[in-house]
Amino acid sequence: MKSLFTLLIVSFLLLACSPKQEPKTIYIVRHSEKILQGDDPGLSVAGTARSKKLGQILEQKEIQHIFSTNTIRTKSTAQPLADAISITIEIYDAKNHDALVKELRERTGNILVVGHSNTVNQLANYFVGSGDKYAELQDIEYDFIFEVSLKEDGSSVERKVFKDF
């Protein structure tokens, strides 16, 4: 009986000490409009304007980390915000969402992630849980911002557009 009691106490202590999800918001966006030439194109004029608008939208959202794939268009999309809040863009592998999700959960503070039309929905869907999943973005869709709210009791995802902010 004494050993059972001790086991229960130890179990409760371990549960109490296990890390809890720190509340934060993760903003997931596709890179802005790109030039339609080359293997690693930069942003078009419209894309440059959208990236500046993204920086303005998120500048007051207490972003502490920015993640981008290693392409010109994704880094250029994140750069206006990075410059405005003086933080460095961190590169992630778009083919390894498991590692990125783990990193996003462990980091403190709000986060921006810039990806591609065929990856941002996959990343957002990690946080949806059993709800409806988001479809891959179409080639012409650049105006969505996935807002992921992580809380101690779970997560939720809301797909917004730039004008919602």
| pLDDT averaged over residues | 89
CATH overall fold name? Rossmann fold
How would you write the strand order of the largest sheet? 3-2-4-1-5-6
Q: Compute the number of helices.
A: 5
> What structural class should be given to the helix and strand makeup?
alpha/beta
- CATH superfamily caption: Phosphoglycerate mutase-like
Overview of the structural elements:
The protein is built from five helices and six strands; from the N terminus they run H-E-H-E-H-E-H-E-H-E-E. The protein has 165 residues and is an alpha/beta fold. It has one domain: Rossmann fold (3-Layer(aba) Sandwich), CATH 3.40.50.1240. The protein has a six-stranded mixed sheet with strand order 3-2-4-1-5-6, sandwiched between helices. Strand 5 and strand 6 form a beta hairpin. The termini are far apart.
